[in-house]
């Protein structure tokens, strides 16, 4: 991930900031310019809930190079308590005990290092609540 | 009066037992368990570092403070394991909690007392009226060289304290600092592991500075050991805080609530601040608490706090320290620990 791209996504990666359509109330994460429900163009910034349930998940056993040391690990779609679904790694979990419907919460974690000398990218993961 | 408005801690879930480390190096586990009163220590996963733990501890402090993070005027992270050599940990922390952009930010480093340094400066800035709230964090993912005595204690954890002069849960009655040039523990630039002076880290270092700071602040406040409900000393192992407490006339009952090291290890900059948080978790209005940190190099910061009635409103708004320490633990073996801590040389 390049530094400028990472920097642009900081409000979402660090603080789960989403765009809520002021016309129809639909929440977009990440924020959009045009509402997919009503084509509205006015949004207010809202912070997503930091707790939710596992909607579905998969176990990654053959990982991309920067995550190879973490394999096997779980990646899931988590439905946060405000109804928004996000995809995130599910960390600190016993993979045999992980199940759909399990309660999780957001934790701030290191996502990846840009090699030995590049920037360190932080963001959200889910952990058992 | 200036005081703690909110506090929070974070402890990683993974643990390694002293016997699992001793087995690899052919060392005698019972001698560490009995001699240094150490049973196990916390271990960070590869996706946890000083910054991530600081953010989680600060979020817990904000839950208790119940303030708008944009009103925080200073963010100071104290650590000897800042992830970047150049780029403050506080930049990421302040951004993650929503305190930017009108905020003063700096990282502190003073071995194990960097956490209380940030707290000390926040108190001064609030008292001077330069900021409304200040956030001081102590956090570390400390490394002990494989096989070295430090490997049995070097652990991971964070504590965050927000200071202000309204919504106070513990007033700051007194502060005091005691510091000399004492080379008992250090790490040179580009070195991965620290060096230490063995037994030299005891008498002329830890004990001299903690005693100096404790006696100094008690003289300043015209107080004796019996005037405090609780006391927290820096915890490089389980034994030292108990011994220095006894030397200063404190009882085990006064030390117990903040004495985390036997099952936590030494969280360096997080150590005595986490002990303070754990003590606040059970304290009552009117309790007087003495905190004395210690950082090799060497110096101690001392604080006297008086707990207010607001403590009852906030203590259960975020996870208690002792609960994080005792629950949801995952034990790992030495191989996993070595992988997690980057101690294995891999092909590039």
Automatic annotation (TrEMBL), chain A:
SUPFAM superfamilies recorded: Nucleic acid-binding proteins
Domain ChsH2 rubredoxin-like zinc ribbon: 8-44
InterPro entries: ChsH2_C (IPR002878), ChsH2_Znr (IPR022002), NA-bd_OB-fold (IPR012340), Thioester_dehydratase-like (IPR052513)
Domain ChsH2 C-terminal OB-fold: 46-109
Protein name, per record: Transcriptional regulator
Native source organism of the sequence: candidate division TA06 bacterium DG_24
Organism taxonomic ancestry: Bacteria, Bacteria division TA06
Automatic annotation (TrEMBL), chain B:
Chain segments annotated as coiled-coil in the UniProt record: none
Residue intervals of the Hydroxymethylglutaryl-coenzyme A synthase N-terminal domain: 2-165
Keywords: Transferase
Domain Beta-ketoacyl-[acyl-carrier-protein] synthase III C-terminal: 218-306
Record GO terms (molecular function): hydroxymethylglutaryl-CoA synthase activity
Keyword Transferase: yes
Gene3D superfamilies hit by this protein: 3.40.47.10
CDD domains: init_cond_enzymes
Matches recorded under InterPro entries: ACP_syn_III_C, HMG_CoA_synth_N, HMG_CoA_Synthase, Thiolase-like
Gene Ontology biological-process entries: acetyl-CoA metabolic process
NCBIfam families recorded: HMG_CoA_syn_Arc, PRK04262.1
PANTHER family (alphabetical): 3-HYDROXY-3-METHYLGLUTARYL COENZYME A SYNTHASE, HYDROXYMETHYLGLUTARYL-COA SYNTHASE
Name of the molecule in the record: Beta-ketoacyl-[acyl-carrier-protein] synthase III C-terminal domain-containing protein
